[in-house]
Write a structure and sequence with these properties.
Layout (H helix, E strand, L loop, with lengths): L3 E7 L3 H12 L6 E7 L6 H12 L2 E4 L7 H11 L4 E4 L5 E2 L3 H11 L3 E11 L5 E4 L16 E4 H9 L11 E4 H6 L11 H10 L3 E13 L5 H5 L3 H17 L4 H17 L8 H14 L5 H14 L11 H12 L1
Parallel strand pairs: 1-2, 1-4, 2-3, 6-10
Antiparallel strand pairs: 4-9, 5-10, 6-7, 6-9, 8-10
Amino acid sequence: MPKVSVIIPNYNHERFLRQRFDSVLQQTYTDWELIYLDDASKDGSNAIAEEYSAKYGVRMLLNTENSGSPFKQWNKGIDICAGEYIWIAEADDYADPRLLERLVGFLEADPQVGIAYAQSYSVDAEGNKLCTCDKLYEALPGKPFEVDFVADGKGLLKRLMFRLNIIPNASAVLFRKSVYLQAGGGVTGMRICGDWVTWARMMNLGKVAFVAEPLSYFRWHSGSVRAKMGFSKISITESYQAHAEVLRLVEVDAAVREEVATYCAMSWLDRNAGENLTLGEHREIFQIARQIDPKVPVRIFRKLCRWALSHLGLNSFVSTLAQRSAVERVEQSLS
């Protein structure tokens, strides 16, 4: 029985797939099995996978229809794997040869550690380094990611995970299969933030280990799911849902809830995310935002409604209502 199951989920990443396979095969820790999951790719990915399967015994599971969710693929791979520990090695990323060795050490040393992960470099489509992912953490209190640590998961949820997903790169994570299953597995109803919710539920069950050395390479490119979704209704809605899920797990200070809810709402407006959203969709998102903080300032919603009414061509929607009256009616429906 292998100690680690390495799962490579893929969809149309032919361009990056050889580098991903090679970065697994070059790991200094070698007690693993390798499973390739293809989600009905239309490029030459599977031909490459067949080469590695013939040479290295890679197990292949090929979908004939796209699943619609990367987290369905996570669950599919974990259902059939044999390892005690799981590495979701996304097909468009790659890793330092020492990644598994470093992370396995934390899981072996402390049975309470359910998740171990390393710092990542962000790289472009050609593999050029852009920055380390600690740039994402600049808004967090203190500087928690400058050194290795092992920390209580609930504490991380309250202090950091409510503010943002502090595990932005699934390819940098090694986790216990038992903890993943106990937490309910991947959130198959989400496309962008399912990892955030999954990590939060797993954190709630034990400890988290972090390696400050960048050992994973997180690729940003136009073909990624995040790039395609951008700052869309789906990404906005799922982000709010992730915040709300953390609140379901732990209590967060009211001032922090208001700070996060206000920041999210203002970011949503400042990025002009409403270009392709109807007023009803804005209202739906705002209802979700209220799960984070019921007292999200009304002025933010008023600003949003007026922006939407003036930019989205909703004359037919408000043909019999003055703009102010329309805004007030929607506000009243939320109270």
